[in-house]
From TrEMBL:
The keyword Cell membrane applies. GO terms for biological process: lipoprotein localization to outer membrane. It is found in: Cell membrane. Keywords: Cell membrane, Lipoprotein, Membrane, Transmembrane, Transmembrane helix. This is Lipoprotein-releasing system permease protein. Residues 242-366 form the ABC3 transporter permease C-terminal domain. It is a multi-pass membrane protein. It comes from Thermus arciformis. InterPro entries: ABC3_permease_C, Lipoprotein-release_system, MacB_PCD. The chain crosses the membrane at residues 24-43, 239-259, 339-362. Belongs to the ABC-4 integral membrane protein family. LolC/E subfamily.
Length: 371
């Protein structure tokens, strides 16, 4: 084993340019893959954070008549009774402006509702409404103007526009509005449906929901209602990882090509070693060690380059056009599991690529070559 390692190191030192190119190919592929996954993580985190600006971490729907009090829980930051309904919002024509009409989901919040969405800066008043930015633009309405909300049962409620909010999630910004609970109750004819809850850690929503539900509430965590979004983002990350991993695969094929050429070049030396008593396994291990060393060195270099690249992108983030994306800059979120998975997959690809030259070296027949 030590003899094979000694020869492998000697071979790699003898051709420094080829060795450096092989290491660089694997390293660059690993670095690009790590940077892409970190950017995908940052994009996902940014979209989830934008969604949770105007979406409850946890909803507890009442199961019986009346609204029972919410039991205390150390994870709960804020809670408020709520009711939601669909309504047609109408702004009457005024002067040169035509009328504005659009459908929206009206979320009525009771006492303490402003604390559920601190980033939106809600200051709810009776008869007031906060509109998503895209919804306000569609209606052509400004703060201080009046709207009429019509329900499916032809109930009408007049609302004064108090302001607008922007989360960055277009589905929310174009279809949601916040009002006081009494306005929704007048529109829908129903009482409060349950509680909306804000948590210290939104990713514990399912666990906290089960603890608070009991027999009085039906819990619904944001991960359940936003499952399609989360699955799409996870699929996007997997597809991106597979596509960019092809760079690593190409680099691994380059390592295999380098080692195959070395085997062809050193057939006389292999035959001589075999004639001097070296076993087939020892000869094959020389080229297996070369592949392993190139793989380990390339992955180590790729991890270093990927980490430095992610640090640079965190320091100087890529700017995004604000009119197309909800993020003005592309965030970076490095995760240890990504580094481990990419390193493992890259090492495996490089090791497998070294099998072909090792097997070719095993098939060299010293008697035929020396003759």
């Amino acid at each position: 084993m030590r003899f094979a390692l000694f020869l492998a190191l000697a071979h790699l030192r003898r051709r420094p340019l080829q060795t450096a190119l092989a290491l660089g190919g694997v390293g660059v592929g690993v670095a690009v893959l790590l940077a892409a996954l970190s950017l995908a993580n940052g994009f996902t985190h940014g979209l989830v954070r934008a969604t949770l600006k105007a979406y409850p971490h946890l909803v507890l729907f009442r199961l019986g008549e009346g609204l029972p009090p919410l039991p205390p829980h150390p994870e709960v930051e804020a809670s408020a009774p709520f009711a939601a309904t669909k309504a047609l919002l109408v702004r009457p024509a005024e002067g040169a402006r035509g009328p504005g009409v659009d459908f929206a989901t009206l979320v009525g919040l009771g006492e303490g509702g402003e604390a559920l969405y601190p980033e939106l800066g809600l200051r709810l008043k009776p008869g007031g409404i906060y509109l998503g930015a895209a919804l306000a633009q569609s209606l052509g309405v400004f703060p201080g103007e009046d709207l009429t909300a019509l329900s499916a049962t032809q109930e009408r409620v007049r609302l004064r526009v108090l302001g607008s909010f922007r989360t960055g999630n277009y589905l929310l910004d174009s279809g949601y509005a916040f009002v006081d609970l009494a306005s929704v109750e007048r529109l829908s004819g129903a009482k409060a449906q349950g509680y909306q809850v804000r948590l210290k850690d939104p990713f514990r929503a399912k666990e906290v929901g089960e603890a608070l539900a009991g027999t009085r509430f039906f819990p619904q965590a944001w991960q359940d209602t936003q499952r399609t979004l989360l699955e799409q983002l996870a699929l996007q990350k997997r597809v991106l990882g597979v596509l960019i991993f092809l760079i690593v695969a190409v680099a691994a094929l380059g390592v295999a090509n380098l080692l195959v050429l070395k085997v062809v070049e050193k057939v006389p030396e292999i035959a001589l070693l075999r004639a001097m008593g070296a076993s087939r396994l020892a000869v094959g291990m020389v080229f297996a060690w070369e592949g392993a060393l190139l793989g380990l060195g390339g992955v180590a270099l790729g991890n270093l380059l990927g980490y430095l690249l992610c640090l640079y992108l965190s320091w100087r983030p890529v700017a995004l056009p604000g009119e197309l994306y909800f993020l003005t800059h592309l965030p970076v979120e490095m995760r240890g599991e990504d580094f481990l998975q990419v390193s493992g997959a890259s090492l495996l690809a490089t090791f497998l690529s070294a099998l072909l030259p090792a097997l070719r070296a095993l098939r060299v027949q010293p008697g035929v070559v020396l003759r």
